[in-house]
Amino acid sequence: MKVKFLITFVLLFFTLLGCSSSAEPGENASKLITSYKQAQYQIEPVTITTSNRQQVADEINEKVKPYLTDHTHQLFVNNRDAYTAVHSAEKSYTVLVESVVIDQIEKDTDKFQVSYTMTLTYTSYDKKETKSETVKCQADIVNENGDWKISRDWESRHPEILNSL
């Protein structure tokens, strides 16, 4: 009798524990998106040449992989999203993710839709020039095998700031 009670208790405990791991992303959404954006944009100052341009982009592609679903990662690579940081480095600028502020989180059937505002700062390697941009963004976050992943990411960025570097 005690064994049945113990087994029932253990099963109930692990069931409840399992349910808690798939809870809403909440403040984890901000951490996930910030970590992803830092992996996407923030690289050490490097001199970009024709011989290392693709290597730097490939490193960024690998750094963002843990934050994205497989499909979204493939889109990231295909769309050459790593090249914002590469282009900035070509112009001797670093990119810093200053802030990610969650504006709204809405639950959809199988995902959470997150609207957020991101501020990026571009600083010249010699620290003499700094430019900032604040952009509205959206992401969809899904729970994939117990891990929160980004399944869609969109930024309302305009190329003017990159062209002005």
TrEMBL record:
Q: Where is the signal peptide?
A: 1-23
Q: Does the keyword Signal apply?
A: yes
Q: Keywords, A to Z? A: Signal
What is this protein identified as? Lipoprotein
